[in-house]
Design brief:
2 domains, kinase, 4-diphosphocytidyl-2-C-methyl-D-erythritol kinase, single chain, binds adenosine-5'-triphosphate, alpha+beta, ATP-binding, Ribosomal Protein S5, domain 2, 12 strands, 4-stranded antiparallel β-sheet, nucleotide-binding, globular, Alpha-Beta Plaits, 8-stranded mixed β-sheet
């Protein structure tokens, strides 16, 4: 087969409830993922051996060796089916790197779908989802897209209904934030506040019924009232300038503002297309309008 291209969406967590730290180091989560129309494209072409190239935004920060999540996905799929991981993966990046929008996870899901097609494996959806979960907590959602409740580490997905379109503006920040660092800061802030950061001491988080209803109704005002991110205080603690970014978006007409995932990208819910354009103009250093929900990994 000749080259195949898969389009993969970014995500924003409209709810990110973080439980205590588990003995395995992960945190129990209840998170509501929403896929947004900001995409990477992963192209798989025949090659001798495994080769990774990348282009687009932040490309200098994308590793081009075996640590690239797309490379890891190709190797995992090849191993599972007993084939050689012979593929040239080219990643065209539009999703900010280390921005809390699951860019690497999207590329992993894209590589699985692209290599499955290139190698003619016909892997069942459940098999691809199981490989996604092994690759990372956010990877299964990148495959399915739309909206979903994620529990466990975020990898156990329950699809959610979305009754309308939501309009976002994402303000990107200089430099990324490491997701493990942000979780460590969240734990530290909990202990510093006199509480515990351990799963044994904290109630397991659950979905917020008001947020789930807002998505089902497609109501931007209701969604803006229900947005929550337990990692936001930790992201702002590590990157105090984010407080100013969030305030600037609200001053420029956003219905609501929150840090996307572990940050540092900030997400603003806009009441209209005109408001989104005005919001984006408030961030000359880089802001990207996008609609949600968006479909998951799609073979073009
Ligand atoms: P999440 O929201 O899932 O926590 P993120 O969007 O904050 O993730 P990524 O863009 O996935 O972060 O990048 C995190 C790190 O992963 C990067 O700093 C980079 O070194 C590494 N990485 C590995 N593969 C990729 C990839 N395909 N694209 C971008 N970064 C990658």
């Amino acid at each position: 087969m000749s080259a195949v291209t898969v389009r993969v969406p970014a995500k924003v967590n409209v709810q990110l409830s973080v439980g205590g730290r588990r003995p395995d180091g992960f945190h129990d989560l209840a998170t509501v993922f929403l896929a947004v129309g900001l995409y990477d494209h992963v192209t798989a072409a025949p090659a001798d051996g495994l080769r990774i190239t990348a282009a687009g935004r932040d490309v200098a920060r994308v590793p081009l060796d075996a640590t690239n999540l797309a490379a890891r996905a190709a190797v995992a799929l090849a191993k599972r089916y007993g084939v050689e991981p012979d593929v040239h993966l080219h990643i065209d990046k539009d999703i900010p790197v280390a921005g809390g929008m699951a860019g690497g996870s999207a590329d992993a899901a894209g590589a699985l779908v692209a290599c499955d097609a290139l190698w003619g494996l016909g892997a069942p959806r459940e098999e691809l989802l199981a490989l996604c979960a092994e690759l990372g907590s956010d990877v299964p959602f990148s495959l399915v897209g739309g909206a979903a409740l994620g529990t466990g580490r975020g990898e156990i997905l329950t699809p959610l209904e979305v009754g309308g379109e939501f309009r976002w503006v994402f303000a990107v920040a200089e430099g990324g934030l490491s997701t493990p660092d942000v979780y460590r800061e969240c734990d530290r802030l909990r202990r510093a506040g006199g509480g515990s950061d351990l799963a044994a001491d904290l109630a397991a988080p659950g979905a917020d019924p008001a947020l789930v209803a807002a998505l089902r109704e497609g109501s931007a005002p209701a969604l803006s009232a229900a947005l929550s991110n337990d990692l936001q205080a930790a992201s702002v603690s590590l990157r105090p300038a984010l407080a100013g970014t969030l305030a600037a978006g609200l001053a420029a007409g956003a219905l609501a503002a929150l840090v996307s995932g572990s940050g540092p990208t900030c997400a603003f819910l806009a009441p209209s297309e005109a408001a989104a354009t005005a919001l984006a103009a408030a961030f000359p250093a880089g802001a990207y309008p996008a609609l949600s929900p968006a479909p998951g990994a799609t073979l073009l």
